[in-house]
Amino acid sequence: MKFRILTFIFGLLLLASCGEYNKVLKNPDLEVKYSYAKNYFALGKFSRSATLLEDVVPMFKGSVHAEESLYLLAQSYYGMRDYMTASQYFASYYNTYPKGEYTELARYYSAYGLYLDSPDPRLDQTQTYQSIKQFQDFMEYYPQSERKAEAEMVQFELQEKLALKDLMAVRLYYNLGNYVVGYPFPGGNYSSCVISATGALRTYPYSKYREEFMYYSIRAKYDMALESVKDKKSLRYRDVIDEYYTYINDFPDGLYVKQIVKIFENSQKQIEDKQFLEQ
Fold first, then answer.
1. What is the reported pLDDT for 188?
2. What share of the chain is helix, strand, coil (3-state, %, to 5)?
3. Is-contact 263 222, C-beta < 8 A?
4. Which CATH class is domain 164-278?
5. What averages of pLDDT result for each successive group of 10 residues across the chain (279 residues)?
6. Local structure of residue 142 (DSSP, 8 states)
7. Which DSSP category does 180 fall into?
8. Which of 6, 38, 33 is closest to 20 using CA atoms?
9. Hey, what's the torsion of the CAs at 33, 38, 40, 45, to 10 degrees?
10. In CATH, what number does 27-145 get?
């Protein structure tokens, strides 16, 4: 019985709240709408604050409320977790008010919202690149900001996501091997594996995936050497050996040392056998 009474009371309060909100929506007084928008924002009712602010922000241009209302609109969408729309309004704010009261915060939250919206590494990473660029801009504009350390940490995390995406491509190229017929590049998927791994090592030199990039590059080069024509075998085995020394120097106790040492020994043997036959 008590539960039914409480449910009934809650329903009445909800109806009253909805009724009040609908009246405010129809109210032509911009000051009233803005006042309610700020109240709804403070209460965490971001959908309502955003709807009201969408009405008043265009009308407030050039007024004393223009700057604050635009920033609150961006924050309302941020609170709704609509980070793309929030980022657009944050950008509108800091482009309109480059020295505004909330410009530093707008730049930071625009970048951070895109970070929160950054998709799985298997998907398109446009938002990830945008977030990295905006964090770079933020740190250039505010090198002494108290948020700089967090911005650097998040930026590195985003770069690791891009590195992982590249690593997934490297793994795929290697696993495909020679399965794809008519591949347009000499060396087929192994060559693409090496090119992708080498590019990733240059782009992300401090990535936690560095060892694995090197591992797949060596394996792909070794497999290319195995399948090479006779005239190219020695050169490619020597390339594998050079890669081995780089790997061992960087990761003397690495995860793939046993496999890499075996590849190195086989490559050396292939070169020695060839030299013996040529004598």
1. 84
2. 75, 0, 25
3. yes
4. mainly alpha
5. 38 51 91 96 97 97 96 98 98 97 98 97 96 98 97 98 98 87 66 96 97 98 91 92 97 97 95 61
6. -
7. S
8. 33
9. 120
10. 1.25.40.10
User: Tell me, what's the pLDDT at 7?
Assistant: 36
Name residue 205's amino acid. Answer: P
Helices 2-26 and 30-42 sit at what angle, rounded to 10 degrees?
Answer: 140
Work out the angle at residue 97's Cα, subtended by the Cα atoms of residues 91 and 100, and round it to the nearest 5 degrees.
Answer: 110
**Region(s) of the chain under CATH 1.25.40.10:** 27-145, 164-278
> What backbone phi and psi angles, to 5 degrees, belong to 206?
-110, 15
For every residue of 38-104, DSSP letters joined together read HHHHHTT-HHHHHHHHHHHTGGGTTSTTHHHHHHHHHHHHHHTT-HHHHHHHHHHHHHH-TT-TTHH
| Token pair in block for residue 13 | 């309060």
3-state secondary structure (DSSP) of residue 119? coil
